[in-house]
Amino acid sequence: MKLVTAIIQPDRLDAVREALLAAEITRITVSRCTGHGQHQTESEIYRGQTVIPNLIPKIRLDIACNDEFVRIACDAILSSARHSEGYIGDGKIFITELLECIRIRTEEAGSGAI
């Protein structure tokens, strides 16, 4: 079992969600988050002072999946999260080992709980 975490641009959420549904990945968790990497925003004027915001709004997707669906999920995200030619700030995908999953309702554990 793996946990696929994707950080994407907010305007790409609908396209990514549709691509995941088309790939039959239906169980996702979506969170709003902020952060920054290489992409830096330009300074803004706020109440007469120059402010350089350093946290950029992003969307975080968490997808717990069995090993055979990891590549399918990543391909769906890669094909839909990138802006036309690709820009700095389009996002990242992290894949981590998922040690255990337990369904609260039935107490079922392991890959069947996903």
Task: Note down, in words, how this protein is organized.
- With 114 residues, the protein is of the alpha+beta class.
- It has a single domain, classed as Alpha-Beta Plaits.
- 22% of the residues lie in helices and 32% in strands.
- The protein contains two helices and six strands.
- The protein has helices at 13-22, 67-81; strands at 2-8, 29-35, 44-46, 49-51, 56-65, 91-97.
- The strands form two sheets. Strands 2-5-1-6 form a four-stranded antiparallel β-sheet, with helices on one face. Strands 3-4 form a two-stranded antiparallel ribbon.
- Helix 1 (13-22) runs antiparallel to helix 2 (67-81).
- The radius of gyration is 17 Å and the shape is elongated.
